[in-house]
Amino acid sequence: SPVATAPTAELLRRRGNAYAQLQSHYYAEPPQIERGWREFLIDTDGRPYLDMVNNVTLLGHGHPRVAAAAADQWLRLNTNSRFHYAAVTELSEALLEKVPESLNTVLLVNSGSEAVDLALRLAAAYTDSPHVMCVRESYHGWSLASDAVSLSTSDNPLAASTRPSWVHAVDAPNAYRGTHRGTDSGGRYAADAVARLGELAIEGIRIGTFIAEPRNGNAGGIGIPSEYLPTVYSAIRAAGGVCISDEVQVGYGRLGAHFWGFEEHGVVPDIITVAKAMGNGHPLGAVITRRDIAEALSEQGSFFSSAGGSTLSARIGSTVLRVLDEEGLQENAQQVGGVLTDGLRALAERHPMIGALHGKGLYQGVELVRDRETLEPASVETPLICDRMRELGVIVQPTGDRQNVLKVKPPMCFTVESARYFVRCLDEVLTHGW
Ligand code: PMP
């Protein structure tokens, strides 16, 4: 068995020495997790935890069909996509079946950061402009370019002041606590973004790319008010630019009612970036775009990723999509997500600390405030609530620039019983303290 044998505390100390501290781990005293099954994680003492954070593990932990496909493919062949094998064609075709017809070509990579990086390169080549407009409080990746367009200060406290000159920020269209408020604020946010485009044009700057998530995932699944994306997309295109919908976090059926987040807005992006869920945890990402956009890069060099679209990754990707459909997990996200929303709404009526409920399906966010009038964020309390939830057997984490939103994005095999357990535990903590 590959399971580590050292005691948990000793392993943690050794991790501190051997693995960079740049990336912190969940909890000061984390349980040692060596197994997972469906929406549960199991520590080395055999204690199960409800996993509310693993949207990467779309189908659930330890899915036997993914494991069987991976084992079978490893024994047959794993090589790169310069070779001709069925898996790369099958996955690309399966992805194209999920998108609007205007998007007709796929490039396979290994992560969300790579997908965003490649998307930005394609867009810059196609529009012949390096300038990108992006949204505050967002996160798009860790690589040089994807980090440059990530403006979330929880991931990088210096994000607002250290962007390269080709990055142009606009406000996060947050209808709950942003510059403009209310469900009808989309038009006002869009007007601000369009005005910014005009100012930049006067300075001689033509935006080639607009990148945004169709819901702000990093901020807690916060919805983008209607009108915003259609208006901004039109303005960007009118000036010769293209629009990227970063679906890495909220796409792939998780919203229940829609497979992709952009469908909520009635827009069709020029480029989609997707990753995380695609491989159920195996590194896999994709850029889905138009052939003319992809071909623009060929004038500036070629694209090749040694492991992107490998036989193994592509086979896993096809298996994940098939299981997602066959197990009806998008429908499950809608149904169980509805139960979750109902339970959380009932809690919000009794607990004034719940300031807002964001998201839908199995991507939700519970925003905690000290005061419903001032919206003062419960930034100190939220991590403590997460610690107490862990004691009750639930793994949930704070997110957003104010670290006051409980991020709720469990594997999509999540059940009604698990939804009720989560709501019950949150009720217990908000009632009896943390
Ligand atoms: N885009 C979005 C919206 C993300 O949330 C993330 C990761 N959290 C990324 C891109 C980067 O993906 P990865 O971690 O796979 O590089």
UniProtKB/TrEMBL annotation:
The organism's superkingdom is given as: Bacteria
**Family label:** Belongs to the class-III pyridoxal-phosphate-dependent aminotransferase family.
Annotated protein name in UniProt: 4-aminobutyrate aminotransferase-like enzyme
Q: Could you say which residues of the full protein are shown? A: 553 to 986 of 986
